[in-house]
Design goal:
It is built from 4 helices and no strands. With 153 residues, the chain is mostly helical.
């Protein structure tokens, strides 16, 4: 039996990556949704939509990882792994786009008068974008680890 790639599906490192994705995507949603006016800007709505997709995806794969770690059964089916890689890849680039657009709009709003974005609300938007960047980083790392494992199956 071959060794498991650290961070690939079914390992404890992958479980830790998924938990980090859950925490950061949920935190991004929380910081964005604390203000009711986020829907006024398309990039903020886009971030909420993408993080709303990332969170259940990460929860479901964290459950798969937890089951694999506790039962000691690594899922090694190429088609299943390919679906997970494509899903992680798509969601990681969607979350990168959402984080970048949110950060740029927040920066633009903060540069103008405070009537567009009071400092308390702008800081929440900045925290939400930062959490989205962290979620993207963990999601992309998970994609790369699983992609590294795919040719060996």
């Amino acid at each position: 039996m071959m060794e498991a790639v650290p961070g690939a599906l079914g390992t404890s490192a992958s479980f830790a990556l998924r938990l980090g994705q859950i925490v950061f995507s949920s935190a991004s949603l929380l910081f964005m949704c604390l203000d009711v006016q986020f829907y006024s800007y398309t990039s903020f709505s886009y971030l909420v939509t993408v993080m709303g997709l990332v969170t259940p995806w990460s929860v479901s794969l964290a459950l798969v990882d937890a089951y694999s770690v506790f039962v000691k059964c690594l899922p090694r089916q190429p088609r299943v792994l390919l679906v997970i890689i494509v899903g992680d890849w798509a969601l990681s680039f969607l979350s990168l786009g959402a984080a970048c657009s949110t950060a740029s709009v927040t920066s633009l709003l903060a540069d103008y008068e405070s009537s567009y974005c009071p400092s308390k609300i702008c800081s929440r938007y900045q925290l939400s974008a930062a959490m989205a960047f962290m979620s993207w980083f963990l999601s992309f790392a998970s994609t790369l680890f699983n992609l590294w494992l795919l040719p060996s199956l």
